[in-house]
Amino acid sequence: MDIVGDRRFLEIPGNKLHELPPLLVHTNPHVKRLDKVVGMASEMVQSEDLLAEASMTDPLSELNVERRTMDLAINLVEQYLSFVATWHWGDGILEWIRQCEATFQFTRELQNVLRPDVWPHAGRSSFVTLLSDKAVNTDGIQLEKAVGMRLTFRQPPPISCFSNQFLFYLNSTVASTAYDTWAHLAPDPISSLPPERFTFQVVAM
């Protein structure tokens, strides 16, 4: 096992560059009936009293409230679409890890690198670290947050299942906590995979 700074790296026999399966990611996830999503967001704004009640005798105030309601609804939709995009990255990463495990299992030099475990293997966070080490372009999506979202939700729920607090403030905290909890379930030390020994492609779908 190689130690570089505070990082431990697994020793891979030989000097061969191993090709891993491609990472397939839905980078533009489709949301059915976007108009319906906006309508749900608007109902959320109204039902959760996000705006101070306007005087119904003042038409300008009423118009202002309607405009602000729509602005908040659109903001909620943007937060929701960001959540869906993040979830799809996490879904792609977990499926990629499964494919990588199969590659390790059937590659002689890699067969003994991974400890057998029950899925989802907490020790497989080393694959997430490998993605970071390889500087994978995620268009600003945090890898740990993406995996945390996928660990939390098997499927992305509709916007009506969320509170505005979750979409505005809590989703990042929930995702980070889920990832950290998962990653630290494995016994120490969790060793990194040497990035110079692996290659793979990222395919946007």
How are the elements arranged and paired?
Blueprint: E1 2-4, E2 7-9, E3 18-19, E4 23-25, H1 34-47, H2 59-105, H3 125-133, H4 143-152, H5 164-183, E5 198-199, E6 202-204
Parallel strand pairs: 3-5, 4-6
Antiparallel strand pairs: 1-2
Description:
- The protein is mainly α and 205 residues long.
- The chain has one domain (2-204).
- It contains 5 helices and 6 strands; from the N terminus they run E-E-E-E-H-H-H-H-H-E-E.
- The strands form 3 sheets. The chain has a two-stranded antiparallel ribbon. It has a two-stranded parallel ribbon with strand order 3-5. It has a two-stranded parallel sheet with strand order 4-6.
- Strand 1 and strand 2 form a beta hairpin.
- It is elongated, with a radius of gyration of 22 Å.
